[in-house]
Specification:
With about 70 residues, this protein is an all-alpha fold. The chain has one domain. The protein contains two helices and no strands. The radius of gyration is 15 Å and the shape is extended. The protein starts with 6 loop residues before the first helix and ends in a 5-residue tail after the last helix. About 0% of the residues are buried. InterPro entries: THDP-binding (IPR029061).
Length: about 70
């Protein structure tokens, strides 16, 4: 899945398969906008070991956590 428009079809296909399925959905912690207090942390799953993991760690290290 690479875009929001294909989400419904992807989920339907996964459910209709009758088998266990994993649907990976990229997210953005800032998607809710500045009017929502706080933030959620969406870490990159540990099984992903490419540049996305490094980018996540680099970005997270710049954030201030209380």
């Amino acid at each position: 899945m690479s875009d929001a428009d294909s989400l419904e079809g992807t989920l339907c296909k996964a459910v209709q398969s009758g088998e266990p399925a994993l649907v990976e959905i990229p997210t953005d912690r800032d998607a809710a906008g500045p009017w929502v207090p706080g933030w959620w942390d969406f870490p990159v799953p540990e099984y992903i070991t490419d540049e996305r993991q490094e980018e996540y760690q680099r970005t997270r290290s710049t954030e201030q956590h209380l």
